[in-house]
Amino acid sequence: MRNPGTAIALLAVLVLGCGTSPAPSPSPSPAGSPEATGTPRASATASDDGSPRELTRSSDPLPPGTYTRASFLPRITLELGGGWFAGTLSDGFFDVQRDRNTPDVIAVQFGRVDGVVGAEGRNVEATSAGDAARAIAENPGLEVLGESESRLGGLTGSNLELENTTGSHTGILDVSVGRLGIDSGRRLWISLFDTPDGLLAVMVGGSIAQWARALGLAEPVLESIVIGGTVDRASAAPS
Q1: What is the CA radius of gyration of the chain?
Q2: Distance of CA 70 to the CA centre of its chain
Q3: Quick one: fold of 4-35+60-222?
Q4: What's the farthest any 2 CA atoms get from each other in the chain?
């Protein structure tokens, strides 16, 4: 995979084992749905009028295609192949998941960040992508595996790859649905970007045991992301 420093970065409880149940484990929780490895990526389609489809919750996998979340700002569009499900959907956070309800749930997540957890577990106001990344790196419940510059949709931000080996859940950042975190045995790739609509986090969460597979399945989604009205797509592939 490409170096995340030249790509966009992304994850969480929501899927990372993350905590909200998104896959970082935001305290959104892990997302995903059991899917066979290497499922062929079907050609993406949009709605009948050519515009992206609205991402809505369903018990069935989403049809391959181009999606957006109308109530989320900045506007995000992304393309999904087969096997993805809609996870948590709110005005300030949404994610798509694979391998749902398994220890290896995979999530690609998007959230407007209100604050982060820094040194000594203290809450830190999210004033900028750089400051937020530095604070997260000092979170005592996380091991930082890598830091780099991240680019996505014409934006430049800060990227972190994180792991939780503490044996207990660790909170990372706050979004509209609550605090996102990561469970022990989970890993998170997170990119932070300053936008006119606030601090944006793009994340990929997955289990440590199946991390390479998680990144492989998330990569096409990351590479398809467009932020706002731009059409400048940066390669998004964690290494």
Answers
A1: 16
A2: 18
A3: Protein Transport Mog1p; Chain A (3.40.1000)
A4: 51
Instruction: Provide the whole-model pTM.
Output: 0.79
* In the chain, domain spans: 4-35+60-222
Joined tokens for residue 12: 């969480």
Contact status, residue 184 vs residue 166, Cβ threshold 8 Å? yes
CB 75 within 8 A of CB 90: no
> Taking Cα atoms as reference points, which of 87, 83, 137, 143 lies closest to residue 110?
87
Q: What's at 56, amino acid-wise?
A: T
**Across-strand partners of 96?**
86, 108
Kindly tell me if the per-residue pLDDT of 224 is higher than 80. yes
CB-based contacts of 186, cutoff 8 Å, min separation 6: 16, 17, 18, 24, 25, 30, 163, 164, 205, 206, 207, 208
CA-to-CA separations, 119 to 11, 16, 133, 142, 171, in angstroms, rounded: 21, 21, 12, 10, 12
Higher pLDDT among residues 43 and 171, named by residue: 171
What would the two tokens of residue 161 be? 């790859």
Q: Is the pLDDT of residue 37 over 90?
A: no
3 state DSSP class of 39: coil
